[in-house]
Design a protein that fits this description.
It is a single chain. Helix content is about 65%, strand content about 0%. It is an all-alpha fold and about 130 residues long.
Length: about 130
């Protein structure tokens, strides 16, 4: 069973690399890999359902558009792009955005797996 988990993570990382490369952004590459891992983990945690992963992706895209196109974000002091990212490459191109995605990934990994009916899986109940 441990070999299957390691193969699963290798596949998720490979998919994350393809996902990030398909966006053609060197600046946001690491953040896009982290985003892909979050989306993969969200799918796994919700019993294979894509609904949470799709909602997560849609909310991130929508919030990025609101902040960039709606000019809701006003930077009061200059900050380095490596720290906060840039409007052209999204918030996940900076260290803060990548850090928040990694926190989200850790939270998703620590949360119990839910079945499509919203109940915890048997494996999670046995762990308690």
């Amino acid at each position: 069973k441990k070999g299957a988990k390691s193969a699963s993570w290798k596949a998720k990382v490979a998919l994350g690399l393809v996902f990030a490369a398909s966006h053609l952004s060197k600046e946001a590459f690491v953040g896009l890999v982290a985003l892909s891992l979050c989306l993969s983990e969200a799918k796994r945690r919700f019993g294979g359902s894509l609904s949470y992963a799709m909602g997560l992706h849609a909310s991130l895209v929508a919030s990025n558009m609101v902040f960039n196109l709606g000019q809701a974000y006003v930077q009061v002091a200059p900050a380095p792009r490596w720290l906060v990212g840039s409007a052209a490459h999204g918030p996940h191109s900076g260290l803060i955005g990548v850090g928040l995605l990694l926190v989200l990934l850790a939270t998703l990994r620590a949360s119990p797996t839910l079945q499509p009916n919203g109940k915890q899986s048997r494996a999670n109940k046995r762990r308690k």
